[in-house]
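Can't attach files on this board, so I'm pasting raw text. These are the components:
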Amino acid sequence: MVVESQKLKASGGADQTRAALVRAALILFGEQGFEGTSTREIAAAANANIGSIAYHFGSKEGLRIAVADHIVATIQAIASRNEAEAVKEVPASQDASLAITAMIERMFSFFVVQQEAAEIVPFVLREMAAPSPAFERIYAGMIEPIHKRCCDLWEAATGEPAGSEETRINVFTVMGQIIYFRLAREAVRRRMGWADIDFEHGAKISKAITSNVADILAAKKERTS
Amino acid sequence: MVVESQKLKASGGADQTRAALVRAALILFGEQGFEGTSTREIAAAANANIGSIAYHFGSKEGLRIAVADHIVATIQAIASRNEAEAVKEVPASQDASLAITAMIERMFSFFVVQQEAAEIVPFVLREMAAPSPAFERIYAGMIEPIHKRCCDLWEAATGEPAGSEETRINVFTVMGQIIYFRLAREAVRRRMGWADIDFEHGAKISKAITSNVADILAAKKERTS
DNA sequence: GTCTATAAACAGATAGAC
DNA sequence: GTCTATCTGTTTATAGAC
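---
Top answer:
Structure tokens for the assembled complex are below.
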């Protein structure tokens, strides 16, 4: 993936310059890493000049913080939209296992298949693996809220308290099954002999994960009953 | 984690200089990334001079390749030792599920608790997430062999062919549960309220993963019988 | 707010003495 | 093989014109 050569900045306006810089930095930091990206490169991709980074964000590090804040805002917009849809789909919390399956498929689509907000995931992965000062925002505004939400679903499905140590660990094991396919995308692609991981492949993986989680939930229910 | 200030190079000798450079690069590339590490930094940590990198490896990129080869050699030494031990522990392939549990615990200890070869994991994680020319070696010499070995165990435990698409995907879901706790170590640490992920915490996580896999295997056995 | 010019530090690679 | 000095280009940050 390469940054489009089209202008990210539509016309004049300070807000548009700012937004174009944030989006260019999001993409380039995700692809090449923070140290692997120069401010000149970012300014060029955003159709702005080098000085504008210092003016709007103070420094390169300030730009990274702004990128993190932009991610959190985007994620929260997506989350509230999904919640509105989820309420429509499952009027009562009729079957918690179904809700978990839906959540897994949504997260898998977001992290691995990536139709929307594809630029966000590489940046977030890098922050998770090697936290920078910007990680604080990503954790508090994205990782923790998603994990909490999953713990609530887990409680509804198993009866195990959402706040218990066991539940929190179990939810991480589910998130690991999903995100690993993004982290190790190239290894998976090679080992599976796939040219790329397309929608069809994604469906197979997603099915395997939801099946795993269904088996785990069923076994837990069996043991506690 | 910071590189020890002690000398990595014991005395003279070309091989010792070479080895010290590889080890210093392994640690620093893992901690700070390839672009985030300067050749001067590596030479200083290895108690060598900058020119020695060009002499021994041709370029910074050549050093990265040498690091990858060193990792593969180390992994293969560990793997053959483990195999020798595994034969002692389980004389016949009496219970394949036990062998899988043992494999998971070994991998978890290697990737997350990290008593031995702790420096290797960060470097490998970075190559998985953002493959460089050195990834080829890591994949062929470490990732694929481990994955193949796990697929064989999976076949022994479930009857599903080791080469089937389903088996390969399932093995990746297990590896994901393990490696995620290393990738997202900082997020896990915060969410669990742990000061660090020590041996006791590792035991809890490992138990959760082995329990998950046991449930998945049992459910698969149930369905095919 | 935007843009250019420049400062000061640092990068990787190389040449050549020993 | 080791080490120093240096070349060439690039880095972030800044100063100041417009």
